[in-house]
Specification:
The complex is a heterodimer of chains A (about 650) and B (about 280). Chain A is an alpha+beta fold and about 650 residues long. Chain A contains 14 helices and 35 strands. The radius of gyration of chain A is 38 Å and the shape is elongated. Chain B has nine helices and ten strands. Classes of the chains: A alpha+beta (about 650), B alpha/beta (about 280).
């Protein structure tokens, strides 16, 4: 309870009323004088009562006590007492708790942001009115409904207490979709469903919030946290040199997200042993305190705000790489990054072609170990043991030039003017003299490839499953597509390098150096999943897939926090693990080299930018943002006035009923 | 008046009067009613010699007759300031009762003496006889006004000294005397009066209609009592009043005093014509 009036007003009122009342009471009670015939019997009666009545003194002062209470109630009412209570809500509440990595920041009071958010959520639950329902959703990169709408406060408190910290980045859209799905009226529901109140307990650093539209109800963002000081590893690239596969290159990018300049060192650990240290120098602040709370993270960092450390080290065998940032800051999760480096292994390529001079010459010039060239007949007649090793294709990449087949053991395939003869994939009509309309430059296969310059006379229409990813698109459909099915990976190019008779070139691309770059990218991309030299980075929350030997049903995954999980192996021989909620190295009990460990790193600039967001916005809808649970000042003076009235009434009754002398 | 004239004051004792009257006296005298004989001694009136006995016995006897004398009726009235209280006023009511009793006494040829007292004895109206003197009684009663603090003991003592002649004494008072009533009554008992104690209280004294925080002032001595009126206090007061009256009644009963209690809200004619007759003061 707090008071709105300055303290001197009630103090003045008290001194003007209570003190004189007590003085007057002790001085004399003003009595009405009345003449009677004799005081003889009255005196006796008074004496009798005084002797007989217990606690006479106390009872005598009851009226004084009541009068004092009346005055006190009046004075307190004058002081405008306020009760800081929860805003009265009647609508159903959806509590959305951010459990992303930035919520692990330990604030000045020693509690993490998640702990603060949990406490505020509990407060909201405590303040629920009778019968009011609430549900709890937690979210980081994924959202999870912990409990559907219920008015059972004990259940709500329990699930709130069970919310765990994750190292995953925070994303709001999925949580919002879930919340709205649960709040929306059901099909055929005739009764009007009340609008929900979405209460998001977060630090406000949710990059996708700007895309979220609130369709029904209102959102209240309860901002948690104050700290801003954080520096983190936002990029880690570990790869072997193509020319010297025993050499490993490590590139780490570090940014300062705080408001103060810092000096940090970056340490490199190989298999747990300190290998090298780089001084990063002075990292300039991202902005001042005020600016950090209102800005959004831009693509280009300010001058001196980031530093890139490069390491080169010999690593002839497989190993674990860890880079660690020295010093302490608010969020330790992004101060470490991990990578798993497989043993160096060259790519084995099989070219299945009736004859292609360009590819025959080009492939050996690539950083590949061996290039075998088979005719289609040789391929179809090759014994299984020659084609398969450990349940997979013996070659890292198989290139089919103008040939389609259904003999496709698990592996990586690249088709020119052909398709894998699997369900859902067909070659359609021939398309002539058309140009490419669109292409995906951001895909690694088309990186540094100038698609505009490619001229193709004709190609076949491709009919592909929906999950196929189109890299180049023509007027009628895909021209270059990537299809993942089970353990197989297909890169399908709708055109061949020659015409059907193989008498002249179908494209001039083979004469362009961009084709060399394309082939290099394609081989690297397709072989990447099996060589393990550069595994695709995994962020917390994202699943990773590992291959298992034939006949394996389950794999055991050892998590960084020491727990172990069991995952099932699909019929295709792949196992996917999704509970990557901790940063670190996950060990997998598979005997396939390069598949036994996976590194999970945060490396998310948006998540490392921990300064609470005061400019939290959504795309559309009603949004209010508060710095704590929305508690309003509820005036208490009417209650004190009622109390005053009550005391007056009691005093009047006592006085008039003449109960006491 | 006619109704009063049919009444007479009852004396449970036979007293000697001072003058001849209509009431039989213990004294032997001249009346028609024979009482006794006694031997003649010289100096006796020869007219009362019984000659018939002398003829038979040759001895002289004197015939004795009952003397008929008047009765002394004394009305002792408390006119302290406390009697000037209540509605109907106690003093006025007392005057009415006294006038009625005096009139009854006068009508029956009794010697009526009225004596008022407060903090001092008097004034006193000496004994009068005969109905034609009722105007003196009324004049006397009209002139006296309540005043001063009551001092019953002293008043009774002085009355007993001044009135050795026995008779009926009717004491009219509220008996709310802080000095007590016992000693005063004992003085009167000592004179062997036929004593009636009539206690007059106003309705306000019997059931006080009071409320709130009060400073009660005694109109006799200005004594003050601060009270906060409550139901308990009122009940306690009534209880005490009842006990006080009961104590007075018991005191009177044990000593042969006829005690009568009346509130001034009882209509005066009902008091005299009914109540006092029932209680044996009048017949």
């Amino acid at each position: 309870m707090k008071f709105l009036s300055p303290w001197h007003i009630p103090a003045l009122a008290a001194s003007l009323t209570i003190v004189p009342l007590v003085l007057l009471y002790f001085l004399k009670l003003k009595r009405r004088e009345l003449a009677i015939s004799s005081t003889l019997l009255w005196r006796r009666a008074v004496e009798d009562l005084q002797v007989n009545a217990p606690f006479q003194k106390l009872r005598k002062n009851l009226l004084l006590l009541l009068q004092l209470l009346v005055l006190l109630a009046g004075i307190v009412a004058l002081a405008e007492p306020m009760w800081s209570g929860a805003r009265s809500r009647e609508e159903p509440i959806v509590l959305m708790l951010d459990q992303s990595a930035s919520m692990s920041v330990v604030e000045a009071d020693g509690r993490s942001r998640l702990e603060i958010a949990r406490e505020q959520a509990r407060q909201i639950v405590d303040d629920l009115s009778s019968g009011q329902k609430a549900m709890v959703i937690t979210f980081a990169d994924r959202a999870r409904v912990l409990t559907t709408f219920t008015d059972n406060k004990a259940d709500l408190r329990r699930v709130i207490d069970d919310v765990r910290q994750l190292d995953a980045p925070g994303r709001l859209s999925e949580a919002m979709a879930l919340a709205e799905a649960h709040s929306a009226p059901g099909a055929g529901q005739e009764t009007e469903v009340p609008l929900s109140q979405y209460i998001v307990l977060t630090d406000g650093r949710l990059p996708d919030a700007a895309d979220v539209a609130i369709k029904r109800g209102e959102m209240e963002m309860v901002r948690v946290g104050r700290r801003q000081d954080n520096a983190g590893i936002v990029d880690l690239d570990v790869r072997r040199f193509y020319e010297q596969p025993e050499q490993v290159s490590v590139l780490a990018r570090v940014r300062n997200f705080g408001s103060e300049p810092i000096n940090r060192d970056l340490m490199l650990f190989v298999d747990g042993e300190l290998s090298a240290v780089r001084e990063l120098g002075r990292l300039e602040p991202l902005g001042d305190v005020e600016r950090l709370e209102t800005m959004t993270l831009g693509a280009v960092p300010p001058e001196g705000n980031e530093s890139i450390a490069a390491f080169e080290l010999p690593m002839p065998s497989a190993g674990r790489i860890e880079v660690r940032l020295s010093g302490e800051d608010a969020m330790p999760t992004d101060d470490r990054a991990f990578a798993v480096v497989s043993a160096p292994r060259s790519i084995n390529v099989l070219l299945v072609t009736p004859g292609n001079q360009f590819l025959r010459r080009l492939l050996p010039s690539m950083p590949v170990n061996t290039v075998d060239i088979w005719s289609p007949q040789e391929y179809e007649q090759a014994p299984v043991e020659k084609l398969m090793v450990d349940g997979r294709c013996a070659y890292d990449v198989v290139i089919f030039d103008g040939y389609s087949t259904e003999r496709l053991p698990p592996g990586n395939y690249f088709f020119f003017a052909g398709v894998p003869m699997i369900e859902g994939v067909e070659m359609g009509a021939r398309i002539k003299n058309k140009v490419f309309l669109d292409w995906d430059n951001s895909h690694p296969i088309l990186r540094h490839v100038n698609v505009e310059n490619i001229n193709v006379f004709n190609w076949h229409d491709l009919i592909l499953p929906r999950e196929a990813r189109t890299l180049i698109e023509g007027p009628n459909g895909p021209v270059l597509s990537l299809l993942l099915q089970g353990r197989n990976q297909y890169l399908i190019c709708a055109f061949g390098l020659f015409n059907e008779d193989r008498t002249y070139l179908n494209t001039d691309w083979v004469l362009d150096r961009g084709f060399v770059v394309f082939m290099y990218n394609a081989l690297r991309f397709l072989a990447g999943t099996t060589t393990g030299n550069d595994q695709s980075p995994v962020q917390p929350g994202q699943p990773f897939t590992v291959a298992a030997k034939p006949g394996t049903r389950t794999l055991e995954v050892r998590r960084p926090d020491g727990q172990t999980d069991e995952v099932e192996v699909s019929p295709g021989g792949l196992a996917t693990y999704g509970r990557t909620d901790r940063v670190g190295i996950y060990g997998v009990s598979t005997d396939i080299a390069g598949q036994d460990e996976r590194a999970v790193n945060l490396t998310d600039e948006q998540e490392s930018f921990i300064a609470p967001n005061r400019e939290f916005r959504v795309a559309a809808g009603d949004l209010t943002a508060t710095a704590g649970v929305d508690r309003t000042n509820q005036p208490l003076w009417p209650f004190f006035l009622m109390l005053l009235g009550g005391f007056l009434l009691i005093e009047w009754i006592i006085y008039n009923k003449r109960i006491y002398v | 008046m006619n109704q009063l004239e049919r009444l007479d004051i009852v004396s449970r004792k036979i007293f000697m009067g001072t003058m001849k009257g209509e009431r039989r006296s213990r004294r032997k005298g001249q009346s028609v009613e024979f009482a006794d004989y006694r031997n003649y001694v010289s100096g006796d009136d020869l007219r009362f010699l019984d000659w018939n006995i002398y003829a038979r016995l040759e001895r002289l006897f004197i015939k004795l007759f009952f003397e008929e004398e008047d009765l002394h009726i004394n009305v002792l009235m408390d006119f302290s300031k406390s009697m000037d209280y209540g509605q109907p006023n106690k003093g006025l009511y007392l005057k009415q009762v006294a006038a009625a009793l005096a009139y009854i006494g006068l009508v029956n040829y009794n010697r009526v003496t009225l004596t008022a007292f407060s903090d001092r004895y008097g004034p006193e109206m000496p004994g009068v006889r005969g109905r034609n003197l009722i105007h003196r009684v009324l004049g006397y009663l009209t002139e006296i006004e309540p005043g001063g603090s009551g001092h019953m003991t002293e008043a009774c003592r002085r009355f007993a000294i001044r009135h050795p002649q026995r008779g009926v004494v009717i004491l009219l008072s509220d008996f709310l005397d802080k000095g007590g009533y016992e000693e005063g009554l004992r003085y009167l008992i000592g004179r062997k009066y036929d004593l009636y104690a009539i206690q007059l209280l106003s309705p306000e004294e019997i059931d006080p209609p009071l409320n709130g925080d009060l400073r009660l002032r005694d109109i006799e001595d200005n004594d003050q009592a601060e009270v906060t009126i409550s139901r308990a206090l009122i009940n306690r007061y009534k209880h005490n009043l009842n006990a006080y009256c009961t104590q007075l009644r018991d005191f009177c009963s044990r000593r042969g005093i006829n005690y009568l209690f009346t509130g001034t809200d009882l209509p005066f004619n009902q008091l005299v014509l009914t109540y006092l007759r029932q209680r044996g003061l009048l017949k």
